Amino acid sequence: MKRLYTILAALMLTIAAWAKTLNVKVGNVTYKFPAAQAGEMTYSGGTTLTIVNKEFDLSEISSMTVDNSTVTDDAIDVVYEGTTAEVTVAGNIAQWVTVEVTGAHVSVAQADDLATEITYNLSGSSEDGGFYTSGVYKATLQLNGLTLTNQSATYSGAAIDVQNSKRINIKLTEGTTNTLVDATGGSQKGCLYVKGHAEFKQKGKLYVTGNVKHGIKTGEYMSVKNATIYVTSAVGDAVNCEQYFLMESGTLNLSGMADDGIQCDIETASTGETTDHEDEDSGNVYISGGTIVADVTGIACKGIKAEGNINISGGDIDITTSGNGKWSEDTSLSTGGETKGASCINGDNDINIIGGNITLKSTGSGGSGMKCDGMMTINGGTIDIATTGGLYYNNGTTENLNYTGNTDNVDSNYYTGSKGIKAGTKDTSTSTTTYSGGLVINGGTITVSTATNNAEGIESKNTMTITDGTITVNSYDDGINSARDLHIQGGILTVVAKNNDAIDSNGDLYIEGGTVIACGASAPECGLDAAEQYRLYITGGTVLAIGGSNNAVTSKSGSQYVLSTSSLSASAGGTIAVKSGTSTIASFTVPSTYSASSGGGNMPFSFEMDVTAPGGGGMPGGQGSNILISTPDITSGIYTVTSGSSSASVTASTSTSGGMH
């Protein structure tokens, strides 16, 4: 005992004389005390030694050495070396942490009275290791070339498990590649789990494999800035968080998940968006920059799913879904359930887009591009959407991945179409139909294509307003469809529907500005169509509408003159022009995707209808076509309309009876 005391005294003198660092090693943990901090060491009862308020059991000390190494305050270094791990703890925080090392599994418990942020520097490699930490004060994890696979489900089974509800920085050292794989068994919620809010930073790379549930799971919000993250496999979602998700820059590459790419839920009760996201619990997704690539293969799964809103102001988003739809039981519904399909972007509330480059492709039955239950507002950005899956049908007993029957008398809960864009909801479950949400397009470049039955290009389940933007739609079903009034006030619209109406409003249809080229299928489908008992008004803009027929145009104050003829046919790539004498006052090129023989089908040769009644698509007729033209330059009088080498004399009017003349 006397000899030990003499050795300790000698160490103290050495530290004091040469300003060295005292290293106290306990198993695989080394505590480093700089001379400036070591101060007086207390030797008590021959069993313990206290240094800077850290008490050591002498029987557990492996060695005590002095060297001239430097110590970074507030830091804990963990170096994984195969089946073991070496931990180094800065002396100034030693008293507030309890460290355990079992093989290559490291646990660090922070004391509740810790009042400084610890940085955990994690590096090295282990084929059976993990990192676990708990506490109530914010912390930083610095991943510096870390490769960690947890095989024995020690602690939770996660590769990294942070049981701390505060802000956790996860920094990926620039130039490093880090790989995390969790155990195939265990209770972990994710391969990388953070109980609090995780902020991913710096320009390194991280690869994540989730063998039990999610790839990355946070109990609160998650943000990404500069980091490059690959989730290569997950039993659940690739990324799952609560409160909100924020992507500022960096890259997320998500694949191999059985569920959604990114899912954000409300933790308790929605606060909506708050200033600087302070105490926010909205379930919102914010994307202002960076790159998101997601390949989603799960049944009825989503690329990005938000319980709140989805706000996109920048960045590059490329999402593909290939899963088919599914039947979801719901005893509150009269049908006992409903069908649900995959979608690339899906919001329970609103979607707001003001920028970014968005590419969405859905190939599964019932898979859609972008949809929300609330209001969708597009003010900018470039959006390219393609769906190719069939109409999904399921009544809880029978499933059909490519249903081609008529759905007019089929409950909508039994089928889901592969639509391009869908916004809002229409509820017919009670005696009074209710509508919510809707669609507003104020800008941007939007390209949509669909390929199968019941696959509208752009659909609003409430009203729709278009004020600007360049919109191109090639659809199998309606190109643009609105459940209630549809206003076109500006923009450039080119809409071709292969098997239905090009632009179809189930309320009044108002064209008040912009350039509209609308090509519907053969009769009885229309280029422009307002539902029965509703009207088409044209008070501005430049319009070319081609279809088996077109809706009757109703005159009102400020109506623009219209030319309507069923004496001509149109062909893809052809030119349709309007001449007054020898002067050409309007010229249009028919879209190359238009086919005069598409859809519609033959109508009976004998029929009766009131051609003066508004709505209903006007007068149908065989495989004939109707061409409707309106521009500000057309006034009263007789004009010559040409299509290719054919021509017809047409009298301008502010109203038409619709159909063939």
Number of continuous helical runs: 2
- State which percent range the strand residues make up: over 45%
Overall residue-averaged pLDDT value: 92
Q: Strand count, sense and closure of the main sheet?
A: 24 strands, parallel, barrel
Low-confidence spans: 1-7, 13-17, 600-623
Alpha-carbon distance between the termini?
A: 115 Å
| Beta-strand segment tally | 63
Overall geometry: elongated
Rg value: 33 Å
How much helix, percentage-wise, in residues?
under 10%
The secondary-structure class comes to mainly beta
Explain this structure:
The protein is mainly β and 661 residues long. The protein has a domain at 496-661. It is built from 2 helices and 63 strands. Strand 3 and strand 4 form a beta hairpin. Mean pLDDT is 92; it is low at 1-7, 13-17 and 600-623.
Lay out the secondary structure.
Elements: H1 2-18, E1 21-26, E2 29-34, H2 35-38, E3 42-44, E4 48-51, E5 54-57, E6 63-67, E7 75-81, E8 84-90, E9 97-102, E10 104-110, E11 118-126, E12 129-135, E13 139-149, E14 160-164, E15 167-172, E16 177-181, E17 190-194, E18 197-201, E19 205-210, E20 214-218, E21 222-224, E22 228-234, E23 239-242, E24 244-247, E25 251-254, E26 262-265, E27 284-287, E28 291-296, E29 302-306, E30 310-312, E31 316-321, E32 326-329, E33 337-340, E34 343-347, E35 351-353, E36 357-362, E37 368-372, E38 375-378, E39 382-387, E40 392-394, E41 399-400, E42 415-416, E43 421-423, E44 425-427, E45 434-436, E46 438-441, E47 445-449, E48 458-460, E49 464-466, E50 470-475, E51 480-482, E52 486-488, E53 492-497, E54 503-505, E55 509-519, E56 528-530, E57 536-547, E58 563-565, E59 575-580, E60 583-589, E61 626-630, E62 638-643, E63 646-651
Parallel strand pairs: 2-8, 7-11, 10-12, 11-13, 12-14, 13-15, 13-16, 14-17, 15-18, 16-19, 17-20, 18-21, 19-22, 20-23, 21-24, 22-25, 23-26, 24-27, 25-28, 26-29, 27-30, 28-31, 29-34, 30-35, 31-36, 34-37, 35-38, 36-39, 37-43, 38-46, 39-47, 43-48, 46-49, 47-50, 48-51, 49-52, 50-53, 51-54, 52-55, 53-55, ...
Antiparallel strand pairs: 1-2, 1-6, 3-4, 4-5, 7-8, 9-10, 32-33, 40-41, 40-42, 44-45, 57-61, 58-61, 59-60, 59-62, 62-63
